[in-house]
Known about the structure:
By secondary structure, the protein is α+β, with helices and mostly antiparallel strands. Helix content is 36%, strand content 23%. The chain contains 11 helices and 27 strands.
Amino acid sequence: MMPRSPHRFALSIRNKLFLVSLSLLIIPWLGYRYIQDMSDYLRDNREQALLERARIIAAALHDREHLFYSSGGDRVGNTAGHLYVRPLQAPMTLDGYADDWQLYRERQQTLTAHRNGTSSEPHDAPSLNATFMLGSYAGDLFILFEVSDDDVMYRQPNDPVGTLNDHLHISYEGPGGTIARHRLSTSAPGWVTVERLTLDGTASTKSIPISPIKAEWQEHPSGYNVEVSIPISEIGARLGFSVIDVDDDQREHRPSTVATIHPAHEGELGTIIVPSPEVGALLKRLEIASSRTWVVDENYRVIALTGRFNPQRPGLDEIPERNSIPDEKLQATALSAVTRIFYNLILRQPATEFQDDRFSASRLDSEEMKLALNGQAATRWRQTPDNRVNILTAAYPIKSGKRVIGAVALEETSNSILLLQNRAMEILINLSILAFLIATTILLAFASRLSWRIRRLRNDAESAVSSDGKVRGSISASAASDEIGDLSRSFSDMVSRLNDYNRYLESMASKLSHEIRTPLTVIRSSLDNLSSAELNTSTHTYVDRARDGLLRLNNILTRMSEATRLEQTLQQEQRDKFDLNEVVAGCVAGYKLAYPHQTFILDIDESSTPEPTTVDGAPDLIAQLLDKLVSNAVEFCEKNTSIVISLRAKDGRAKLCVVNEGPPLPDEMQQSLFNSMVSIRNRKSDDPHLGLGLYIVRLITEFHNGTVSAYNLDSKSGVTFCVTLPRVA
């Protein structure tokens, strides 16, 4: 049997099948690629669905031209400063502070710098910056101005005009079409003095009604705030306001102005739209969650808006209490939370917060709106400024007869597509993991079963045949119909045939001995009779040679049957405890007489064996074993060298060694030297050698539960044979 290589890297069948099972990972990879490709299909599908919803809303607004101007809007007008008023969720406290406006920060807009009635760059007014927010609630228009000014100038008591200080202008077109102009200034933080101006810009109380505007002025470290309320019923289709910064009261420097549009010219007032309740109610009925619907007129001005991208978070009363959740659902919730954390890490999640560049828009003049106002439906994807979300816009024209009077635009984020992708990806991953685990478990179970059957067959084969080729047992044939079953049946038949052949070989010696001894007896009796007759000298020589050959042939038969008789003797031999030291010493004394020309050295270490070296077995067999080793050593020993017979006892073992100087053993023969019919003698001798001597040594050693080995000396000048036997108490 060939030894297994300890240095060779080998994979078991189970490991190989596990590696093969990794090929199942191509399934989720293909699914992942499919889901990625499905994104284009989902985008096209969302475009068509959103465009169809826009068409339905547009159809509801067809031929209803009055809705586009019922809130005071005009058909043409100046559209540069258009303002769309969004509703507020609660009334504002008119105190000049921005606390109530924190929820509406995204509505904040910046006023443009002006000088001499023309627009200029912001750096022309380096000390003045102003933003505003506006909204409506319960019939009132609320506006918050936040002004950054490094030097706030209040109105002096002796200033009858009110222009040598920081102030605001608010102008609007009333319901009757007249322009109402107002100046807001104050001598100290608090309520603001609102003056209604004449057409030439002077304040007078003669025949001018009291201003309906209310305002509060509050100073802060970087400037001041002005919070204003105006009844919506006072405002018609146009509105404009400006902030004027005066840095000195001597008119040495020209005032800086920031405004929606410059209020000095009535025709330049921007338009304003207050949401139409009728249009708002119509859009509310058609509103879809997480989407936004715009309605614009033919001048791109927003006249209606409903919906929002981010749904409101659930209130505290919607969150279940800890004690109200059953324990089994708690475990499922915990597992779901862990799973959700895992998917949040590996999958891109929808963004709940992002920069919306159209949140406070009052005009929509994008490409898709231009196409819609030209009578052509259009869709477009755009990315938010922070690149976190893609927004889809579907625009559809609104007609009155054959004329386009406006357009409806529906917007929704890519979150719905991303949610579908993530959901599909989660299902794919879950099913892939489940399928992979099931397939791997089945493959590993099958591989374990397969490996166990192969190992059992290997163990049966190793136990059935010994290292010297002797059959010790049998291999049970498997009833399985697969290849391993066929292999086990083949092995079983092979071992059975090998056992029959070994029995034939083992019985051959006794059969030959029995069959040959009868003709040998006839030859011996014939030679004896021939010797008694009168023969000449040459004839006597031939008879003597025949007698010597007969003797050698008889010795060969004796040696052939010796191993067979010994095996039979070992099966019936009685065991007894004896002192190995006495047996070895007695044998060595006999060898000195039997081989007078050979020197023997007995080396028994008394320090290691102060007590008898007791062995359980048969002393006659140990003597026979030592006879074979010594006979082998005498034959190979160099002339004028000694044979050393040593005995050591240590750790419950007795080690008997025979050392002789002579030719070394071939490396390839050291493992098979103790097998039957193996001999390395190259020179002729008078005694026959069939390679059974060391085989008998091995049989006797195994009978005593010991081991035998042979190896060359380090100097390659001789050979050592060692027998190790267990000691008994």
